[in-house]
Predict the structure.
Amino acid sequence: MSGDQYSRYDHTFNVPPVPPMPPAPPSAPADGARAVAVAVLNLSGLGLGYALLRRWVLMVACWAATAVLLLVALPAEPDGVPGFAIVLYLLFLAAAAAHGARLGLRTPLAGLRRAPLALGLGLLLLVVPAGGVVLYDGARDEATQQMLLDRLDEADRLVQTAGEKPFDTAKADYREALATYADLTDDHPDSRAAKKVPTRMKTFYTTVGAPYAQNNYCQSTEPLKYLRTVPKSLPDTDLGSLKTWPDDRLATSLFECASTALTAGAPSWATQFGELLTTFPESPQAQKAEPAVAAAVVTAQKDLSGTEPCTAVEKLNTLGSQIDAVPSEQAAVGAALTKDAERARTSADAGAYNCGVDQYRDGDFESARTTLAQYVVDHKTAKNAALARKIAIAAEIAQTVPAAGKSLPTNRSGGSISVTVQNDSPDEITVLYTGPVTGSFTLKACGSCSAYSLSSTLNPSFEPCSSNKNYPERTISLPVGTTYFLHKPKDGLDTPASDTAKLESGYIYTECAYTTQSLGSLS
């Protein structure tokens, strides 16, 4: 063989092939304790079961679920965690526990190799959610307590603001505040807010009853009556002495306000005294009510002789009616009030004479005539009846002849001058006269007489009562002076006629009454 000799060597070794890596660690033998341990660890909500199985994504999912729950639950509110959130979280924990148990049945644990130790740790960690529940309940209870205290404060502010308003305006605010106090004591009797309600009620009472403390008795009656209804709104609240707190104050307010109204002549006193006598019949204030009424009657009686007797008469009549309307729980008080009413009416009747005289002097002749005529009807035997009749006659004449009312008539009668009055009319007439002497009489109709025509009365030679007829007539004796006559037809259809006679000694006077046909008037 020529040339170089070469030899070929094969250095390749025959190495056996490497088997592929398994997709997951080989399963461990089934271990129920390990499965339970993983499940219990996952129930803590921290995903520790998954951590021992090295399932990090699942562990983070547990953390995320727990974080979401904490975001929903915190801070603690009185209403607590929404129910759907709790249900969803519990379902998640149950699913995590079941899933962790399935995985842990054949998967070895990392870190804690022994399943009993892991189970013990899981059971110990269950204290965490349990403790969290306890702490949360405490926080929620505190939030509830604070919420109730806030409601209490709001009611207190409402009362304070209402105290600055008139009671009628503030009443709705008081009711709202009282409803809050009632809700706290009824629905949350063990709360800190409910335990403060009795103290708050002292402020409530003094605020509502503030007008009484300021001696505004009329303004305090309605607030105090309202306070007497408060215990019915708070049946479960120990109000102690507050239950009777308004009673004496209300009795005093009713008496003082009624007394003021009685003095001023305001009609409200009767209602207020009635409330006092029926609501607090045994109170010292009620014992003073009837004497106050009696004193008012006496005062009005004294006013009959004053400058405004008509006002006193009206007041006495009004008092009589008002006293009749006052109820009383005690028979003795009721009897005394009845006597007061009768005394007021009797005094008013008697005072009508003074009233009529005052009206006459004031020139109100129509009212004077009406007042005194009624007085004569009601008091026929009274010592002033005769004079009242004369003043009523003069007042009627003065309605036609005002000069007749310049002086007040007297009981004087008779005189030295004869005056004959004849009736030359077909109507019965009443003759009224006043002057130094006042009186009246009636003349029968003249059967053969008739009304004169207007044209005949205009004739300068016209003279009634000039024929030889038998005229109804009457002669009276009058003193010297001016006497005013009024001829009034009995039927009242014709217009009265008047005449003024200036009587002098040594003369005999004749008055003639006749009817003018066209005018239908008596002359």
